[in-house]
Amino acid sequence: MYKVMIVEDDPKISHIIYEHLKKWKYEPFETKNFENLERQFLKLRPDLVLLDINLPVYDGFYWCNKFRQLSKLPIIFISSRTENMDIVMAMNMGGDDFIQKPFSLEVLLAKCNAILRRTYTYQQQDNDYLEHNGLILHVNKGRISYLDDEIDLTKNESQILFMLMKKKETIVSRDEIMQELWESGDFIDDNTLTVNIARLRKKLSEMGLAEFIETRKRQGYIIP
Fold it and tell me: 4-aspartylphosphate: which positions carry it (predicted)?
């Protein structure tokens, strides 16, 4: 049974999410005190966090960064803020997905199911690592190494690179990547993939591999 930490300061919305997840055999936890979320997080050890942006004391971006320092568990932002910059900020702080309010409980459940299945079955891949042109992806560690450098990746970044490296020298479409990551393109904003690709490329560039992933216009991405 997966434990889900609900960080939502609107008690009505929080309880609706709680009841729906409980109905589908999750083990949800409603946050009541927003001043010691780090302590609650460490005590609960959740498998997934549902995180609002507008919160008392510190906002969701702050807490996402704190949680990300402690764990690589999946984090889904749920917010009424719909500006692209908010979505970009959420992804850059380490969020794995973004749901805009008002939202469908069915969509929320589908996203929770997909991200948990992806996260906790992906760790069981047969390959411990993949290598191409000197870059090594340590699959189970979510880390890349090249020469003397090592950089940690988020789960999304690691999965995108894993997919591209497994299909090296083959063009992989955006739709194919989204299907792999989120099970269905109907449940994800295309901007989320763009942000994850950009973030992955930035990390590769920092290692001197700026051209490791190539874009093929109107086709997708390839590792040549």
Answer: 52
Half-sphere exposure of 81 (CA within 13 A, CB side): 18
DSSP 8-state code for residue 135:
E
Q: How far is CA 88 from CA 15, 37, 119, 144, in A?
A: 28, 23, 21, 23
| CA–CA gap between residue 124 and residue 183 (Å, rounded) | 18
89, with CB counted inside 10 A (0-12, 13-18, 19+), is buried
Calculate the CA 220 to chain-centre distance: 20
Q: What is the pTM of this model?
A: 0.62
Whether the Cβ atoms of residue 57 and residue 34 lie closer than 8 Å to each other? yes
Per residue in 158-206, pLDDT (tens digit) is 989 999 999 999 999 998 888 777 654 445 567 888 889 999 999 999 9
The domains located in the chain, with CATH, are 3-122 (3.40.50.2300), 129-222 (1.10.10.10)
224: tokens are 């040549």
